[in-house]
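pasting input
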Amino acid sequence: MINRLTDTLNFQAEALALRSERQRLIASNIANADTPGYVARDMDFATALRQATGQATTPGQMTVSTAGHLQPAAGARGEPGLRYATAAQTNLDRNTVDMDRERASFADNSVKYEATLRFINGSVRTMLEAIRGQSQ
Amino acid sequence: MSMFQVFNISGSAVSAQSQRLNVVASNLANADTVAGPDGSAYKARQVVFQTELMGAAGAAGVRVATVSESDAAGRRVHDPKHPSADAEGYVTYSNVNAVEEMVNMISASRSYQNNVEVMNTAKTLLQKTLQLGA
């Protein structure tokens, strides 16, 4: 029974963690806008969320059915949903950060982070309401 | 919580950009410096940025790797009455290009503003996260 209450909450919490991770990625890109040779990275959010909630497997991850099975080292496994950006305009210093794109992604991610926060707040309020009942 | 690392990342970028602004300021201040007794004038300096990995995947800050000096020839002006003039009557000034430095300054200040804005947004989002469920 308690699972049913917390399942939606778990999903939103997973999404929130991924959103904050993407925020960190975009902050790294903006910080390195003037670094020669830096390659911008971004997250394929839908794929990352599917991998985080167990609906899809991370590339390179192996099935573990007994305790003796080993997992590849962190570097040998694909990172969930991370992609490298190609340069929108060629650059003399081979930097592929497109500031307009990064600013847009940053704003988009901030709004969606806040939306996830509101979803969590909403389901918490719904649950509290259900627990309290009509006791007034 | 990966949102806290945004402050480290953007903070490193802000400090790197402010060092770049410092270098621009010293270049502009020395734009009209004449060669000293050793015969070499001030050389324009430039910071070299480098990515600094911060542990977790995808977290990358910036640091200033080196400050390089320009090898361009200094500006030579014919002024035989100048006390620093050489045997041919030429005075060697520093090799600072004022236009280049101004462009560098604008670029540095824009990057600085961008990173400050990133930190402000992260702060707002974290505050809202702290009030979760209230």
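fyi Chain B has a mean pLDDT of 89.
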